[in-house]
Amino acid sequence: MLQLLVAASLCGTLQSAYFSQFSMREPDQDPCVDSTGRPVRCVPEFINAAFGKPVVASDTCGLHGPERFCTVREGNDGVLRERCEECDAARQELSHPAQLLTDLNDANNMTCWVSSPSISPKNVSLTLSLGKKFELAYVSMHFCSRLPDSMAVYKSADFGRTWMPVHFFSSECKRIYGKLPNSDITKANEQDAICTDSHVTSPAGGNRVAFAFLENRPSALHFESSPVLQDWVTATDIKIVFNRISADQAELYGISNEVTDALSGSLGNDSQTDPVQQRYFYSMGELAVGGRCKCNGHASRCTYDKMGKYTCDCKHNTMGSECEQCKPFHYDRPWARATSRSANSCVACNCNLHAKRCRFDPELYRLSGQRSGGVCINCRHQTTGRNCHLCRPGYVRDSTKPITSRKACKSCGCHPVGSLGRSCNQTSGQCVCKTGVTGLTCNRCAKGYQQSRSTVTPCIRIPTLEDINAPEQDQCPKCRIVPKRLSQRKFCKRDHAIQIVVMGREMADGWAKYRIVVEQIFKKGLKGASSRRGETWLWVNEEAVLCKCPKIKVGRRYLLLGKDDESEDKPGIMVNPKTVLVEWSDELLEKVIRFGKRDKMGYCHPERY
């Protein structure tokens, strides 16, 4: 049935398809977008991918000098008559090269490739190069003489470096190819080549033999979501290997395939002129391969680029000979093949006009709910952050200008003597002042302080009578719960790492009881409240509260790292000297994600610490 359909298709529409693949004209309406401008899946036109493409034969009649080949055909009177011809590759009118297989054939005067006559013509091959990846539907072969008894069809998806079988034809599948004829294909072996004998037992297509790549493949109806079948139909080259001549032809001349080797040996060097040998050869008139230029749903046509290479005219912000990758700067989500439901266009990174390069981070993409995974590279104009949306240390956001402005970040202007550094609060612009210093830029002494001559302590407290007479009091020890710098070592030595938001506070029996909500878990504890999201309690003893170690404010977000300590009478999370508490920021998120990746890679192995 397939051979009849292929034959009808070739007679009608194939000729126009031959030339459509070479059309360089841009279509009037871009099929890759709908009427509203929304990207949609698009595919190139279905064509004969073999037309005009080079075919290499391992053996050709007359290649090494003049030869004769003979055919037997039945006349109108029903009598079989033998007709002999000469072949000579040096004379164009007598040559029968493989290039004739992919030209524009005339059904009434078909040009044929002919192999060199031999008593036992085995393993003669034809190799077709398509020039780029195609997604194929069928392979069709029209023979000028009798059909070969056994032949194998192979395909390559890497331009001939590796080959895999796609179909076998033989009257003796088990003996020649070690396969049962017409075996069933299941989802477990959808890339297995089957062996059929229909071309011998019931040649409904006459001298035409064809097969479809997706015929009897269980996932064919769901091809769009089947990477296995998408790979199965992808090819850059097709190879046909003839392994045995037609059994019918051997019987016609009174000789069987089993004795051809013996005859070949007995004829010796004079076998070239033997009339029996002149009747044994392969001859094909047309090789057609139906399919589409492989563009993964991101192009409606293939064309020649500036280098003369046949390639997809990619849309949807994709690039490559098969539109198999995203264009530079379009890495906000991973590349994907287009489907009928979504074009899966590549999306540009959001860098607020401050960067020209970006990369894709799969972990950020997962944490964002598969919405955004682009990370900007080399942010300019004093910006930083994954979207170049923050200001670098020493700079603060200028609210009078849009974030896309080159002057969106202005200098903090922190006083070099009165401040502890160049950085300031990203929201208010407040610099971090030394003790006794105040002002937005730390440029004056606070109330109760006076200027000194020291650059270390520019403002000193004005002494009072009470200060002079008051005995020295114990001071709070240095607070280590709030570190100046969060390191990989601190992350590794803690059991859990969570993001919390403080909702309220109350005092109970010498303890500060903070009501918190665990929003994200970056490192999961083995037990307790740190191992699950939701509302819980954070306990801080009264001494730590008085020393403001840690200093916790209601409504703020924090990163909390700690040990899995529990108390029977205090459900929740206990703050102790091993706890680390850092106020939350976007820069902190990138650092914690990086620490988490290293933890999963074994960087936090106990031997390191």
From TrEMBL:
Its main location: secreted. One of its GO terms (cellular component) is basement membrane. The keyword Membrane does not apply. Residues 1-16 form the signal peptide. Residues 476-604 form the NTR domain. Keywords: Disulfide bond, Glycoprotein, Laminin EGF-like domain, Repeat, Secreted, Signal. The keyword Glycoprotein applies. It comes from the Eukaryota. InterPro entries: EGF, Laminin/Netrin_ECM, Laminin_N, LE_dom, LMN_ATRN_NET-like_EGF, Netrin_domain, Netrin_module_non-TIMP, TIMP-like_OB-fold. This is Netrin-1. Pfam families: EGF_laminin (PF00053), EGF_LMN_ATRN (PF24973), Laminin_N (PF00055), NTR (PF01759). It is found in: Secreted. One of its GO terms (biological process) is animal organ morphogenesis. Disulfide bonds join 412-424, 414-431, 433-442, 445-459. Residues 38-292 form the Laminin N-terminal domain. Residues 412-461 form the Laminin EGF-like domain. It comes from Diploscapter pachys.
